Amino acid sequence: MIRLFFAVTFLFLFLILGIPVLLAELLIGKFNPGLKDRSSKAIVSWGFRCITFFTGTNVIVLGRENIPSDSASLFVGNHRSYFDIVLTCSVFPKITGYVAKAEMRKWPLLNSWMKNIHCLFLDRDNIKEGLKTILKGVEEVKNGISLCIFPEGTRNKVKDTFLPFHEGSFKIADKGGVPVVPMTIVNSAEVFEDHLPRIKKTTVVIDFGKPIYLKALDKEIRRSLGTYVSGIISDRYFALKEEYKL
What are 138's strand-pairing partners? Predict the structure, then answer.
């Protein structure tokens, strides 16, 4: 329980003591939005690295060379843990926001930091608002801001399984003209969810696959992108579990 105590305490202090920093970031953004983006990314990444340290999690990152350097990307990953965001945020080389559930907009202070790193809030129960979020995502990637989405739509609670990937999750890449980068996350639920309420010291593997350029795919594959990308991630997931004995 001591790891949970330190992680939660750090997050609380980060949010409270970070209020003046948020105000400074707001001021910076009025004069230099690019600087605000970079500084917010650095601050949030630092905070998440600290939480990762307190949890005792060893993060192995593979495939960094597969991340395109000449454009934004849509990172698409499997989702088993709340720590998926904590563990991946500092790994992305560029400014990368997350497509998060609309409920997270209600979390004070945390939502401000999320907005600062270009997170979007998706209301899956409201088609009109959901479409607005997708269009905003298209605008973001066209402007060079990468996004990360978990197409299962919710946190999968069953170990070594995958929920269906929603086809709509790929519209940002399709309309924005950016590649999809499959992101396989292995063993993240072992940090916390698999043995609530304890946080357990463990190893998590994050693997970036080769970018998928949608225009280069056959029409048949493009009609079922969710199944196609889910298959890539699933195959890599079980290969990594075997390789790292997780």
Answer: none
Tokens 């001021």 belong to 27
184 neighbors 66 (Cβ within 8 angstroms) = no
Cβ atoms of 138 and 176 closer than 8 Å? yes
Checking if the pLDDT of 124 tops 90, the result is no
Q: How many other CB atoms are there within 10 angstroms of residue 106's CB atom?
A: 9
For residue 181, the cross-strand partners are: 75
Tens digits of per-residue pLDDT, 3-22? 999 999 999 999 999 999 99
The pLDDT, as a whole number, for residue 54 is: 97
- Please count the CA atoms within 13 angstroms of the CA of 208 that sit on its side-chain side: 20
pTM of the model: 0.96
28: left (phi over 0), alpha (psi -120 to 50) or beta: alpha
CB of 80 closer than 8 Å to CB of 204:
no
Q: Considering just the CA atoms, what is the radius of gyration of the chain in Å?
A: 18
Coil, strand or helix at 176: helix
User: What is the secondary structure of 73-135 as a DSSP string?
Assistant: -EEEE----THHHHHHHTT-SS-EEEEEEGGGGGSTTHHHHHHHTT-EEE-TT-HHHHHHHHH
**What CA–CA distance (Å, rounded) separates 77 from 98?**
11
Q: DSSP label at 155?
A: -
